[in-house]
Amino acid sequence: MEIILDLTRHCIETASKKKYERLIRQYFKTTATQKEKIIIEKQINALKYFLEKADFPELRNRCTNTISVEKKAVLIILQHFEKMHIRFNNATLYPIWKTK
Fold first, then answer.
1. What is the pTM of this model?
2. I need a surface site. Which of 27, 49, 52, 86 has the fewest CB within 10 A?
3. For 7-24, how does the pLDDT look when each residue is reduced to its tens digit (9 = 90+)?
């Protein structure tokens, strides 16, 4: 599964929070089908894990060190969340997970 993060005005952490909030609003819309809700639930769970466990200062530092050409990042979600990674500027970044 892939989640596209808009980095036009925000860092990866803020873009992830905004995407998470949009997905929650979308989930509770009455027009979403059951199948759509299942997909949204998986994305919400993955973003929640990412937001709670990723070391964002370290990740932000690595993103800042790459010359920013693209204004989006793609969060690649695998079956095991701890193996998720980010495609950004033709590079693959693996988050460092907090130990707490």
1. 0.85
2. 52
3. 888 888 999 999 999 999
Residues 76, 33: Cα–Cα separation, whole Å: 24
Three-class DSSP category at 19: helix
Tracing tokens 């997905």 back to the chain, one arrives at 23
Query: What's the mean pLDDT when you consider all of the chain?
Result: 86
Contact assessment for residue 91 and residue 66, using Cβ atoms and an 8 Å cutoff: yes
Locate 50 and state its tokens. 């990412």
The tokens describing 36, both together, are 């759509």
Q: Which residues contact 6 (CB under 8 A, 6 or more apart)?
A: 15, 18, 19, 71, 72
Question: For 62-86, what is the mean pLDDT?
Answer: 79
